[in-house]
Design brief:
single chain, alpha/beta, Rossmann fold, seven-stranded parallel sheet, two-stranded parallel sheet, 11 helices, 40% helix
Length: 314
C-alpha cells in the first residue's frame, strides 16, 4: 500500500533525491521547502510540485499534514550553516511542529536527517569505528552540530514520552549528482571547461553516495520492527586524496584537475575526527549496507554530468 510521505527540505540535495526515489516507488510525496529547487537538482526526474512552506509555521504546516493525510515524515530541512544561535531556534520550532503533528496524526514513523558532525571531537584510543551510543561531548562551538543534537534530543523525548516513532540517521559526507559543493560541483566545473579542484571534507573521509543514503531513509521509514534511536549511515571505509585522485582519473580520463582542499577546512575538520562511523547497527536492524564505492560513485556522477552537459551550461 502506498504511503503519504511528507518531506521537509524537499528542494535540497538529499530531499530532492529522496523525493525522486519515493515517487519511483509509487508513494505519494508531499514535498515542502522555503527555497525553490536549484537548476541542477531540477534535472532529476521529479514530478510532484513542492509546497513553498516554512516548517516552523505551525498553523499552515499542521493544516497541510492533516489535509494530505500524511502517514510518514522525512525531516531533511535544516538552517543555513551559519555560526548563529538562530539555527537552534529554527531546529527547535521545526522539530516541535513535526513531532506534534506526528503525535496527533499517529504518523507511522518520523525519520530525521542528522549528521556524523554530531560526534564532534570523539577520538577513540584504539581508533575503533564510532558507535551510535559513544559519549558525545557538549562544547559551545559549531551551531550546526549543536542543532543536530537538539533536534535528536527532541525526537527522543517525544518517542519516550508520547510514543512517537522517531529515528535519526547520522550521515557521513554525502555526495552525488546535483550537489552544489565539494566533489560534484568541482567535477561539474571540470566538465564545463572550468578550473577543477575536487576535495574531501576531511582526510581521510568516509564519503557516502546519495543513493545509499536514500535507501537507508526508505528502510528507516518502512521497517516494521521497532528501531533504535539512531543509526550511522556511512561507507565503513575512509578514503584519502590519492584514492580520490585515482577514482577521478578512471572515470574522467581526459579531465584536467588537481586535488583541492575544503575552503573551510580549519572549521570543519575538528567537528568530526578521523575515525569512521560504525554501521553495524544499520546492517543488523535496517538490513542496510552501502552498495556504492567511491569509484562507482564518481563514475555515476560522470555519467550524469555527461548526459546533462548541455542543460548544465544554461
Amino acid at each position: 500500500m502506498a504511503a503519504v510521505i511528507l518531506i521537509t527540505g524537499a528542494n535540497g540535495f538529499i530531499g530532492s533525491h529522496a523525493t525522486s526515489l519515493f515517487e519511483s516507488l509509487g508513494h505519494k510525496v508531499v514535498p515542502i521547502d522555503i527555497f525553490r529547487r536549484s537548476h541542477d537538482l531540477s534535472l532529476l526526474p521529479i514530478r510532484t510540485a513542492s509546497h513553498l512552506l516554512d516548517v516552523t509555521q505551525s498553523a499552515p504546516f499542521n493544516e497541510l499534514c492533516k489535509s494530505e493525510g500524511v502517514t510518514h515524515i522525512f525531516h531533511a530541512a535544516h538552517p543555513r550553516r551559519d555560526e548563529n544561535p538562530a539555527v537552534l531556534d529554527f531546529c527547535y520550532h521545526a522539530m516541535t511542529n513535526i513531532l506534534e503533528v506526528a503525535k496527533e496524526l499517529r504518523v507511522q514513523r518520523v525519520v530525521y536527517s542528522s549528521s556524523g558532525a554530531l560526534y564532534g571531537q570523539v577520538r577513540k584510543r584504539d581508533h575503533a569505528p564510532i558507535k551510535e551510543d559513544d559519549p558525545v561531548s557538549i562544547y559551545p562551538t559549531y551551531f550546526y552540530r549543536s542543532a543536530k543534537i537538539l533536534s535528536e534530543w527532541l525526537g527522543d523525548f517525544y518517542k519516550e514520552q508520547y510514543g512517537v516513532p522517531f529515528v535519526a540517521l547520522r550521515y557521513s559526507s554525502v555526495y552525488g549528482p546535483g550537489l552544489g559543493r565539494g566533489i560534484p560541483l568541482e567535477l561539474k566545473k571540470g566538465v564545463l571547461g572550468q578550473k577543477c579542484r575536487p576535495y574531501l571534507t576531511r582526510i581521510p573521509d568516509d564519503v557516502i553516495y546519495v543513493d545509499d543514503v536514500t535507501d537507508a531513509v526508505r528502510r528507516a521509514l518502512f521497517t516494521v520492527n521497532p528501531l533504535s534511536r539512531a543509526y550511522n549511515i556511512a561507507l565503513d571505509k575512509a578514503y584519502g586524496d590519492e584514492e580520490l585522485k585515482q577514482a577521478i582519473q578512471r572515470a574522467f580520463p581526459d579531465l584536467s584537475f588537481e586535488i583541492g582542499k575544503h575552503p573551510n577546512a580549519a572549521l570543519v575538520g575538528p567537528h568530526r575526527d578521523r575515525d569512521v562511523l560504525d554501521i553495524t547497527r544499520a546492517k543488523e536492524e535496517l538490513g542496510w549496507a552501502p552498495q556504492i564505492s567511491l569509484d562507482e560513485g564518481i563514475s555515476r556522477i560522470g555519467a550524469w554530468l555527461k548526459s546533462h552537459k548541455a542543460a548544465l551550461r544554461s
